[in-house]
Specification:
Blueprint lengths: L12 H8 L2 H4 L7 H14 L4 E4 L2 H11 L7 E4 L5 H9 L3 E4 L11 H4 L7 E5 L10 H11 L2 E5 L7 E2 L2 E2 L6 E5 L12 E5 L3 H10 L3 E3 L2 E2 L10 H32 L19 E4 L3 H13 L26 H9 E4 L7 H15 L1
Parallel strand pairs: 2-3, 2-4, 4-5, 5-8
Antiparallel strand pairs: 1-9, 6-7, 8-9, 10-11, 12-13
Helix pairs in contact: 1-9, 3-9, 4-5, 4-8, 9-12, 10-12
């Protein structure tokens, strides 16, 4: 059986069945039911952020966060090209204009020193990405944004539970957006959330997820439908109970990779004061040719790595006409390869993966 780059975490089957059993009595499956409320409370406590709005998908949550801030129509949002397409798609689908900022070579996050030169009178917001769970330089980004009166929304899809200087990362900026997709370190099969501190955003976010309907007689906006259902909430409640053990297992696997591959490949740095969730195992090769050779060797051995993020979003067909002076991001994109890491991956398999990597580099 092949080894994939990730595998969805699932709770014990019986535990999930017990969690959903009351649904067969209540017949409540959606529309912010009791499991939804329990999960939202548990999630807020775990994250250290009491203001959380749940969505059916992470992408829906990101679009809702941008809409809720009431940014000027057609304005510009500065973001990173070293990210999954969803980040930039949300900007464009809402009628905003993306502006690509280069990233830091050390960790792949948005480079604050490049940010100021990209801001003009049409810029309304910055959308940095916590890449592979690596925290952005939030202090520097927010300092630049404050000087220019810009909103800051973080794409924290890969940074579940990460803290920076002892503070929950999702409490930074105007809002932080999480994804609970099955491939993430914490999943509810599908799902997402917006974490925020301004209580006025709560009503706007609820309008975005539930057709703009406040009650049976009142519709205030042309909102969408991205409600988080009871089955998702049940999965979230179960997976949250086991997350601590899974993070410890991810940390152990990460340590094995670093011990066996140290000196042969490069690793991304972790920002001082930031914790890790070990959601990915990215390594850096010398160049694109070496990266491709390692990837091909792994595939031949029944192991499926991922060239993530390659190609850059700015090189995707919808964005090729958007200016992008991002040499650091291009360099990282051509060299990065994510190796398999997930709870349940056997140490023997990690050793075999490392053996293939090292053998292909000789």
């Amino acid at each position: 059986m092949s080894i994939k780059v990730t595998r969805a975490s699932l709770p014990p089957f019986e535990e999930f069945c017990e969690e959903i059993r009351p649904l067969w009595d209540s017949h409540i499956l959606t529309n912010m039911g009791p499991l939804h409320d329990r999960f939202r409370a548990a999630l807020g406590e775990y994250l250290g952020c009491p203001s959380v709005t749940l969505f059916s998908h992470g992408h829906s949550a990101l679009e809702a966060a941008l809409r809720a801030l009431r940014l000027p129509a057609g304005s510009r949002i500065v973001t990173s090209p070293f990210t999954f397409a969803s980040t930039v798609h949300a900007i464009v689908r809402l009628g905003f204009e993306p502006v690509f900022c280069d990233v830091l070579a050390a960790d792949g996050t948005l480079d604050p020193s490049c940010l100021e030169g990209l801001i003009d009178l049409r810029t309304s917001a910055v959308l940095p990405v916590h890449v592979y769970g690596n925290a952005c330089d939030a202090d520097a980004v927010e300092a630049v944004a404050a000087r220019h009166g810009l909103r800051v929304v973080y794409d924290a899809a890969q940074a579940f539970g990460v803290r920076l200087d002892g503070r929950p990362l999702v409490c930074r900026g105007d809002a932080s957006v999480l994804s609970f997709h099955a491939t993430k370190v914490f999943n509810t099969v599908e799902g997402g959330a917006v974490c925020f501190s301004d209580p006025s955003l709560a009503v706007a976010l609820d309008d975005e997820k539930n057709f703009g309907i406040r009650d049976e007689c009142t519709c205030v906006a042309a909102g969408g439908n991205s409600k988080f259902n009871e089955l998702q909430a049940a999965m979230g409640l179960c997976n949250l109970r086991h997350l601590g053990d899974e993070l410890l297992e991810r940390e152990r696997l990460d340590g094995v990779y670093r011990r066996l591959l140290g000196g042969a490949v490069g690793f991304f740095s972790v920002r001082d004061g930031a914790s890790r969730n070990y959601s990915y195992m990215p390594v850096l090769l010398r160049d694109a040719a070496e990266r491709d050779a390692v990837a091909d060797a792994l595939v031949c051995a029944g192991i499926k790595p991922r060239k993530y993020f390659w190609p850059l979003v700015c090189d995707a067909l919808p964005y090729r006409s958007v200016p992008a002076e991002v040499p650091v991001a291009r360099g990282l994109s051509s060299r990065v390869l994510c190796l398999p890491i997930y709870p349940g991956l056997a140490l023997d398999d990690v050793e075999r993966i490392c053996g293939v990597v090292l053998g292909s580099l000789q």
